[in-house]
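In response to the reviewer comment on reproducibility (Comment 2.3), we provide here a single inverse folding case reported in full, input and output, so that an independent group could reproduce the run without further information from us. The structure tokens appear first.
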């Protein structure tokens, strides 16, 4: 059964609000939040990039962030939105890596909640860009 970025984001929210909420829940929530944003970003980038970003070889996470940061769009506001998405992908990827790989560092509820909110905000922005493109 296929899974959507919305499904992944919903799991992130459920993990964040689990009772009791363990650090493992928080780490998983951070990771799922990031991947919800990553997948919708990649989906959108593939619709506006030739070749699709997913077809470009190399480190996909860095490539995706760099694509949005360097995308040239004729509309200034859209260009700024795309750069904001690119910057967020880069910075949020760092927290996702901390959460997944640096088990000796603490991930707090504040970290996970902030991650979820930032990802949700960027997902909403991408959804607006997708709707504008479809119109």
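Designed residues, in position order:
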């Amino acid at each position: 059964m296929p899974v959507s970025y919305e499904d992944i984001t919903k799991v992130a929210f459920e993990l964040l609000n689990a009772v009791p909420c363990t650090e493992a829940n928080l780490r998983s929530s951070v990771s799922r939040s990031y991947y919800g944003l990553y997948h919708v970003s990649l989906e959108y980038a593939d619709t506006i990039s030739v070749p699709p970003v997913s077809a470009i070889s190399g480190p996909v996470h860095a490539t995706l962030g760099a694509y949005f940061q360097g995308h040239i769009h004729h509309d200034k506001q859209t260009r700024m939105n795309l750069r904001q998405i690119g910057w967020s992908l880069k910075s949020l990827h760092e927290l996702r890596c901390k959460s997944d790989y640096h088990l000796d560092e603490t991930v707090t509820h504040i970290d996970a909640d902030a991650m979820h909110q930032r990802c949700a905000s960027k997902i909403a922005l991408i959804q607006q860009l997708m709707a504008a493109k479809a119109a």
